[in-house]
Amino acid sequence: DAGITQSPRHKVTETGTPVTLRCHQTENHRYMYWYRQDPGHGLRLIHYSYGVKDTDKGEVSDGYSVSRSKTEDFLLTLESATSSQTSVYFCAISGDRDSYGYTFGSGTRLTVV
Amino acid sequence: TQLLEQSPQFLSIQEGENLTVYCNSSSVFSSLQWYRQEPGEGPVLLVTVVTGGEVKKLKRLTFQFGDARKDSSLHITAAQPGDTGLYLCAGAGANNLFFGTGTRLTVIP
Lengths: 113, 109
Hints:
heterodimer; A: four-stranded antiparallel β-sheet
């Protein structure tokens, strides 16, 4: 059983529409992260959460918002999708910030046309 | 942003050969991790190194953390086709990990 699942796995959307990606964990981990992965850039942090309703920005947060109303769910919203947000999005969880052992989901491939 | 540079970017070798990939930064990290990622999946943690000069072995994989905690290497002995994948290093910052761009390894049977 996967301790972390992302949905949807694939999505195609039009420029200007809002999009929400979901990350669900069953590990009761405190820390959750959203990264995007692009060729030549590696994994870049968008937003992260260190508890329910506690979130903060990463290095590429413009155009994105997040919410965490429950320990198990971390939502990423693209408020008005742009072609530059075409990417693969990964959610990760960690139980202990100091150990930094991340478990990643399988990713969501988002295409904005 | 704390930059992590990995080299080489691409590596294609024959089964049974040895190889080393490198992860370098100008920043000091409290710990450094290595992940392997396969197509269509998220990265999977291989190892965490914490102490400068530390060496960890995971079967045919040997990981070393530099004395100054700015760099790391991954050595694979007798590579197998199952080692094929994208290898990522990641350094621990104050609140999250900073990832390198990766080394894409292909092991040819």
